[in-house]
Amino acid sequence: MRLGALIALILIFAFPGTAVAAPAPPVTARVAYLVDDATGTVHYHKRESRRVPVASLTKVMTAYVVRREAGLDDVIRITQADVRHASANGATAGGLRAGERLTVRALLYALLLNSGADASHALAERYGPGTRRFVAKMNAAAHRLDLRDTRFANPDGLPATGAFSSARDQVALARAAMKDRVIATIARTKQHTVAGHTWRNTNELLGHGVIGLKTGYTRAAGYCLSFVATKYGRTYVGVVLGEPTEANRYASARRMLGWAVAHTP
């Protein structure tokens, strides 16, 4: 018998009628955090302020900055450098082709659904202008949002020295990003087709109240997930970072959500 369960039994028998809180659910992530979006009530926390890599969850900030810099109908010409950036770094790509012209709206779908590093590169080059200036805008936005444990080094989350965030900061970013109607709409879309491209959402948790937001993976970061769910009139926002497997990140998120729903008055 686990120690926590044994202690609970001792308390029940020693003090009949005593209410004993159920133990928090097991979460295999290195760090995790879950809050009620409306009240800010923390339902789950595990080393939430630790600075760790967050892989492609970085692209949530990329989308957030783009929405403040660009018009949705702006047209961007995809370059060979955009395509090469994804392929040369072994990054997930949106299958963009050099020379084609796509709207910002389309590239946001490629960015958030398919996690396209080619799309993030194209957007950063246009709205920095240049990646270095765009990253500066990302860090300025992080400062405005009071993300004190966050520093970006690129717009896609590829491994880079000096890049980090925390579960607490990623939840704060997700809450801010989901207030944007365009990001919120894209985040809950399972599949989108435009200009000969079909992008599929990599978030397998979508459905049954789950409405976003973004997956991520690198060897250094492990499997990551930023998730948003609406259950019984409440919206919950959570993050798991550093999961050992893809299946684990979804299992942990489900456990955290189940715990939050069960313990919401």
From TrEMBL:
Keyword Magnesium applies: no
GO biological process: cell wall organization; peptidoglycan biosynthetic process; proteolysis; regulation of cell shape
Pfam families: Peptidase_S11
Alphabetic keyword roster: Cell shape, Cell wall biogenesis/degradation, Hydrolase, Peptidoglycan synthesis, Signal
Active site per the UniProt annotation: 56 (acyl-ester intermediate), 59 (proton acceptor), 115
InterPro entries: Beta-lactam/transpept-like (IPR012338), Peptidase_S11 (IPR018044), Peptidase_S11_N (IPR001967)
Ranges of residues in domain Peptidase S11 D-alanyl-D-alanine carboxypeptidase A N-terminal: 21-244
Protein name: Peptidase S11 D-alanyl-D-alanine carboxypeptidase A N-terminal domain-containing protein
Residues annotated to bind substrate: 214
Family statement drawn from the similarity comment of this UniProt entry: Belongs to the peptidase S11 family.
